[in-house]
Design brief:
Distance between the termini: 49 Å
Number of domains: 1
Protein name: Protein-methionine-sulfoxide reductase catalytic subunit MsrP
Low-confidence stretches: 1-22, 36-49
Radius of gyration: 19 Å
InterPro entries: OxRdtase_Mopterin-bd_dom, OxRdtase_Mopterin-bd_sf
Largest sheet: 8 strands, mixed
Enzyme class: oxidoreductase
Shape: globular
Organism: Eiseniibacteriota bacterium
EC number: 1.8.5.-
CATH superfamily: Oxidoreductase, molybdopterin-binding domain
Number of helices: 12
Bound molecules: ligand MTE, molybdenum atom
Strand content: 15-25%
Length: about 325
Amino acid sequence: MPKLFSEPWYRSNSRVTPESSFRTRREFLRDLGVLGITGLVAAQWGCGHSEKLIAVEEGCNESDLLDITRFDALNATQNQTYALAPARALTSSSDALSHNNFYEFSEDPKSIWCLSRNFQTKPWSVNISGACEKQGDFNLESILTLSPPEERVYRHRCVEAWAMTVPWIGYSLRHFIDWCAPTNDATHVRFVSAFDASTMKNVNFIWPYYEGLRLDEARHDLALLATGMYGRELSPQNGAPLRLVLPWKYGYKSIKSIASVEFLKAEPSTFWRDIDQNEYPFLSNVDPTRPHTFWSQETERLLGTTDRVPTLPYNGYGEWVAYLYSG
Ligand SMILES: Nc1nc2c(c(=O)[nH]1)N[C@H]1C(S)=C(S)[C@@H](COP(=O)(O)O)O[C@H]1N2
Ligand SMILES: [Mo]
């Protein structure tokens, strides 16, 4: 049985813990005027039980919804090229399924698993446009056949200072990029998430979510186009059916539920940068020496534990990616 509601840090009002930081991120957004937090939501945050209330109100059963085996199994070959030492224990699937950021559904990381349960991810197509040869809508199946699926264990570092270690399934984004055949003058690629108003009910932001990469970053072998995790298809809350996983960057760069891809000749804007360009710059590589305005980035908490470990430059992936930023 997953320990969903028992973590004492979640109820803590202390400003020292990373989870108070996560709460502070939302206070920060509210101060910016982004979040019109209502009395009701504020009260829920205050009591720290909002996730439980939502699950009960919505009739969500955690033992059903957080069971990874309810998702279809995927076959994948292990690729251990990017294994980091010392190894970290894998985050349990129930922790990865029950603590999420997916703001379209909610600002509360502990309610996404419930609120996203009816998000339809089949059938799915991706629109490709801009400075590339491929143009138009392509169904998910045609994209999945571009390269055989691999399993890669990556560390994920959220800007809110929680972290997880997850066996993702997917293939290098560059196979998809090459298939799209960007023109010689294309320099960047932009991704936009799906927006489904019937399930994504957080009205505090203007959707859809959008992100971007330089083409050389997108073509780096480490950048994964993921369709699964823990040997299964992705869950809705983790970004089904298709998402990016960019382990050397803060988590918000790893856009979920990709609906369109556009090739560009200039740097695009990104969702969080449009909210605060100093706090969430375009590159957003993990950097323990650069604190957030409201918290240090020197350490991170491993999801499902109370352990804090040092945060590494590029989240530990510097030996592979640092050269991209040497110029
Ligand atoms: N569309 C969309 N993608 C998103 C987000 C989001 O709110 N919307 N949150 C990002 C953030 S902040 C993080 S940390 C990761 C979380 O991924 P996970 O829920 O699978 O752990 O998704 C990223 N991708
Ligand atoms: Mo994040």
